[in-house]
Amino acid sequence: MNQYLSPVQTNELFISRNDADDFRLGDIITNLHDSIIELSGAIVLLGVPQDEGVRRNGGRVGAAAAPDAIRKALYKLTPVFHNQDELTVINHFRIIDAGNLITDGIELEEIHKRQREVVGLFLQAGALPIVLGGGHDIAYPDGAALGDTGETFCVINIDAHTDVRPLIEGKHAHSGSGFRQILEDENLPLEQFCEFGIQSFAASKKHIDYIYSQEQTVVFYDEIRKEGNFDSSFEKILSTCSNTSNNVYVSFDMDAVASAFAPGVSAPAAIGFTSDEICRAAEIAGGNASVKLIDIAEVNPLYDIDGRTAKLAALVVAHYIGGMVQRMKK
């Protein structure tokens, strides 16, 4: 496994204050050094710094720089989480940064194969992976890794787009094909797939009909707005999945967030979820014991403004961890 990974150069991303009264996540996140056997119960960060799938899909490249941009923002955050009048300090939780998957000079299909293997090893060791993309083609190897455990699983894609396009020429994956690959892989014991936040004028009717033909679920953005309660809408679909399987994978495509909050993405949207809502979704996911894996896709630092989108992605990670810690305290 280690031959596929490049360690994080922490000193280039984070400078500690060395202040015991004001320590940061960067002070408590450790690098992966030891055997995966010791990962049970730990949160493991894995970066996938590539945007070849975005290029293949005709999108604007730049997402390859996202994992370290997200880390740079994440490491600076304080490990202090406040929710429901309760203050929690995340200082006893093991958070391990496995570094970045080596992607330079490697074909996308081989990158996906290696990602699937590495994420699968983390899951088998009892770790809880957080995968930092990169383009949204990371979805297939992530979902496949969860399916490789041999148990049924469910997938929730928080996204403005469906990402169920066919492979290019029937064989080349890309940033818009990941969930179709999961749906059509007969070796994966997928129980349920839900698209959450699909926007009008952002998805093909043929692709939506394809999802319905697979007897899967689409929750449209306007339906969530009509219901008027984001938390309730997301909790409902997550509850449906977690009641179906103890293994749920939630994918956060940052273009589900309005570009006013997340300008630095591969495909910015004029409307979408707010920063608070995407963080709440992460917190709710962390609070559900069935969620075993999340990823964050399509952050594009090349088009970001003052690191706004990378900072929001870091908060998504932090709120997910915060939700997990709150759950384990109960």
What does this structure look like?
By secondary structure, this protein is α/β, with parallel strands linked by helices. It has 12 helices and 12 strands. It has helices at residues 10-13, 25-28, 52-56, 66-76, 108-124, 139-147, 178-184, 205-213, 221-227, 230-244, 275-286, 308-329, and strands at 5-6, 30-31, 43-48, 80-83, 86-89, 95-101, 128-133, 153-158, 190-198, 217-220, 248-253, 291-297. The strands form 2 sheets. Strands 1, 2, 3, 6, 7, 8, 9, 10, 11 and 12 form a 10-stranded mixed sheet that branches. A two-stranded antiparallel sheet has the order 4-5. The longest helix is centred in the last third of the chain and has 22 residues, at 308-329. The chain is globular. The chain starts with a strand and ends with a helix. The mean pLDDT is 95.
Quick rundown:
This protein is of the alpha/beta class and 330 residues long. The chain is built from 12 helices and 12 strands. The model has no long low-confidence stretch (mean pLDDT 95).
